[in-house]
Specification:
The chain has 605 residues and is α+β, with helices and mostly antiparallel strands. It has 3 domains: 145 residues, Creatine Amidinohydrolase, Chain A, domain 1, CATH 3.40.350.10; 141 residues, Creatinase/prolidase N-terminal domain (Creatine Amidinohydrolase, Chain A, domain 1); 284 residues, Creatine Amidinohydrolase, CATH 3.90.230. It is built from 19 helices and 28 strands. It has a 6-stranded mixed sheet. Strand 5, helix 5 and strand 6 form a beta-alpha-beta unit. Helix 16 runs antiparallel to helix 17. The longest helix is centred in the middle third of the chain and has 28 residues. It is globular and about 70 Å long.
């Protein structure tokens, strides 16, 4: 094994300090004349992964999930989580201090209407909430004659004595051979997309990274530079980034594209645009309300809408698509090596979930091209596999016994980002396991084979993945697919396949295909490949049609397939997919035992 892995299995949750820290926070609030405060799990860019200096919710409560929010009032405190963390939150927080609230049952606005009192002043950090979030929260407070109040600096920062410093990860260029388009062209396209707006404030670091062809090291697992940019309809763009992240050569190159400014300059520049009466476009999903208010108060117009860079970034060009295919090939070979290793080691009964996660990362590292894992691996045995977003820690680490093992993982490479889930049987699976697995497989194949008219959204095809489960009175509670970036975020919008996926699917988008089934307390199943939206020629078609190209290549466990549940077209798809896996991955394996295993794992059924 390598000495240092990209992922840690230590449990960072510390509920023991909850009572002391919440008492200190209440003292701060009292001094500021506030009756409560909102603590989101967020940084000022609304990133999925945030630097340690922004983990305020974890520091206060002990909860380490990737999404959540706490409300601290004078006499009570609640922490809101979605279904992914319903079990974990109860283990991570002091339940005598925080009341866990399931968002599926009670949303934050309803809770505020029920718990705020007339005249209460509820504080929030305007850097950590978007304008639309603040608008909803303000209405909830006003409904009971309470008030939502912006407060700076964040009161938690005043009591967090050992708060880590902000990150200073070095920024590097993302080569043109991987990006496929010069940054100058991307920035020009962004300016052209402004229409009646005078400027675009780019608050999403993913968009900053894509537009300037740069990558950074400020957060875990996603190569992000934490930075802002201002793209003007007329004038040179501006990049707001701590100069300590740039070496001299890179600063010179970026200066040819944009004026390089320190982040502290951003507020002044937005205020100046406001005084000039300019209309500035802000991204509704990531822009802090603090910045939109600066423009408005100075006399300008803050137009909160959709960042046009998001769609440009989502539609991969030919170089990005070729890079993605190469990354999937390389990653697929590592997955096959892992699955072969697992098939030998798991039956001994000596493996743990952490052993498996470490081994898979090691196989990826042996490619010598791995930059990071794209997220902490979900290595889950038995009942842990029934938790869709389970994360193994030293505390939860489970021996892998007979039954089902699920591993959801991915890698970051210069040429692409990967995400794959495989569910495998250890020992002989039960009839129920085979039935459920095959229904999930049928849904997976239905998405992979789907054809749909141009303009269709992910919401319109989501049901295809669920129908085989619905016919048995079953379902799963997560989306069927999410967008994936190009050596960027493993979770990228606006494209997704889910009940809420309203963005039209367009050629070049990369999306996951990952239906599942979870038997709570027993086991879980998920099958995930990445697919690319592509044009689909159909003889006699009266409309422009689209479909998917599957680019993930690794065997699907035939021991879990109940052949009689598959129709002839599904059997043909599975056989063709496995033939392709065998043809493309075998030459990348230097171990004859692994090649023999792959031949058997991809045999025709």
């Amino acid at each position: 094994m390598f000495e240092s892995l990209f992922q840690s299995f230590e449990d960072q949750a510390d509920p023991s300090q909850g009572a002391v820290r919440i008492a200190a926070l209440r003292a701060e609030l009292d001094g500021a004349g506030l009756d409560g405060f909102l603590i989101p799990r967020a940084d000022e860019h609304q990133n999925e992964y945030v630097p340690q200096s922004e983990e305020r919710l974890a520091w206060l409560s002990g909860f380490t999930g990737s999404a959540g929010l706490a409300v601290v009032l004078r006499d009570r405190a609640a922490i809101f989580v979605d279904g992914r963390y319903a079990l974990a939150v109860k283990d991570q927080v002091d339940l005598s201090v925080f009341q866990p609230v399931a968002l599926e049952e009670t949303n934050l606005e309803k809770w505020l209407r029920e718990n705020l009192r007339r005249g209460n002043r509820l504080g929030y950090d305007p850097w950590l909430h978007t304008p639309r979030q603040v608008e909803r929260l303000a209405k909830a407070a006003e409904a009971v004659d309470a008030e939502l109040v912006a407060i700076e600096p964040n009161p938690i920062d005043r009591i967090w004595s050992d708060r880590p410093p902000p990150p200073l990860g070095k920024i590097s260029l993302h080569a043109r051979k991987f990006a496929g388009e010069n940054a100058s062209r991307k920035l020009a396209r962004a300016a052209d997309a402004l229409a009646d707006k005078d400027a675009l404030l780019v608050s999403d670091p993913h968009s900053v990274a894509w537009a300037f062809n740069i990558r950074g090291r400020d957060v875990s697992h996603t190569p992000l530079p934490l930075a802002y940019a201002l793209i003007l309809k007329d004038g040179k763009p501006r990049l707001y980034v701590d100069a300590r992240k740039l070496d001299h050569s890179l600063q010179e190159k970026l200066s040819s594209l944009a004026d390089i400014e320190q982040p502290a300059r951003l507020e002044r520049d937005l205020e100046e645009l406001g005084r000039e009466g300019k209309r500035v476009l802000f991204d509704a999903a990531t822009a802090p309300v603090k910045l939109t208010e600066i423009v408005k108060k100075a006399g300008g117009v803050s137009d909160v809408g959709v960042d046009p860079l998001a769609l440009m970034k989502a539609k991969k060009n030919s170089a990005e698509l070729e890079g993605a295919r190469q990354a999937q090939l390389r990653d697929g070979a590592a997955i096959v090596r892992f699955l072969h290793w697992f098939s030998v080691q798991a039956p001994t009964g000596g493996l743990t979930e952490i052993d498996a996660a470490e081994a898979l990362e090691t196989f990826r590292r042996e490619t010598r091209k791995l930059k990071d894992v794209s997220f902490p691996s979900i290595a889950a045995a038995g009942p842990n596999a029934a938790i869709p977003h389970y994360r193994v820690t030293v505390k939860t680490n489970r021996k892998i016994g007979k039954g089902i093992f699920l591993i959801d993982s991915g890698g970051q490479y210069d040429d692409g980002t990967t995400d794959i889930t495989r569910t495998v049987a250890v020992g002989k699976p039960t009839a129920e396991m085979r039935d459920r697995f095959t229904r999930v497989l049928k849904g997976h194949i239905a998405i992979a084979r789907a054809v749909f008219p141009k303009g269709a959204s992910g919401a319109q095809i989501d049901a295809l993945a669920r129908l085989p489960l619905w016919r048995a009175g079953l379902d799963f509670d997560h989306g069927t697919g999410h967008g994936v970036g190009s050596y960027l975020s493993v979770h990228e919008g606006p494209q997704r396949i889910s009940k809420l996926g309203s963005a039209p699917l367009e050629p070049g988008m990369i999306i996951s295909d990952e239906p599942g089934y979870y038997k709570a307390g027993h086991w879980g199943i998920r099958i995930e490949n990445l697919v690319v939206v592509e044009p689909r020629e159909i003889a006699g078609a009266e409309r422009e049609m689209l479909g998917f190209e599957t680019i993930t290549l690794a065997p699907i466990d035939l021991a879990l397939v109940e052949r009689k549940l598959l129709d002839p077209e599904e059997i043909a798809w599975l056989n063709a997919y496995h033939a392709r896996v065998r043809k493309e991955i075998s030459p990348l394996l230097d171990d004859s035992d692994a090649r023999r295993w792959l031949n058997n794992a991809t045999k025709r059924i």
